[in-house]
Amino acid sequence: MITIALSKGRIFEETLPLLEAAGINALEDPESSRKLILSTNRADVRLIIVRASDVPTYVQYGAADLGVAGKDVLNEHGGTGLYQPLDLNIARCRMMVAVRDGFDYESAVRQGARLRVATKYVQTARAHFAAKGVHVDLIKLYGSMELGPLVGLSDAIVDLVSSGNTLKANHLKAVEHIQDISSRLVVNQAALKLKHAAIQPMLDAFAKAIKK
Ligand code: ATP
Ligand code: MG
Prior knowledge:
Radius of gyration: 19 Å
CATH superfamily of the largest domain: Periplasmic binding protein-like II
Structural class: alpha/beta
Bound molecules: adenosine-5'-triphosphate, magnesium ion
Strand content: 25-35%
Number of domains: 2
Oligomer: single chain
CATH topology of the largest domain: D-Maltodextrin-Binding Protein, domain 2
Number of strands: 11
Largest sheet: 6 strands, mixed
């Protein structure tokens, strides 16, 4: 049995065409089904539906052989025990620093002010500001980061941005680009060896189907 870990929403939707290219079709839709284990047209392949940030954990421990996870999530996880053979070029967005419209970020940084930064991406934020030599107090959040600067929780946020509409709607502006983000295929290292005959053709099919 090959188990593939996916999260609901954009990753599931954007991974479906890649699975199809490998001859794998989901028989149920996670948006309408409450099931967490979905069967496919192939008796030897199943999908499990987990939180986006839990995908690397399931694959690391071998509870899933393969998974699809954002670079953002992989950076936070650290990647222990995982092969990351393919950038699938899906769920593309950017990791950015953002502040309130009126906040002079450049001069705060220039003056060496200690910044309060709210984010779900603590490891990424820590590495970014350390590399810039900016002192920060990091405040861990689990969502709705845009609220932080509006209610005085933080001076800045580190968050994913695609269109920028959410920032705009909340009177925030992006002031620094940290990293381009897309989703990667992750593979359990032991599974790649032990189930090579089943997994390698899938990797080849995904690689051929990736949109540049
Ligand atoms: P949860 O909702 O369970 O807390 P999440 O918000 O990280 O998790 P999604 O919003 O489905 O889950 O995001 C899944 C992945 O898609 C993220 O890890 C990231 O790589 C990518 N992503 C997030 N936001 C965007 C976006 N606005 N545009 C494109 N890709 C995005
Ligand atoms: Mg989300």
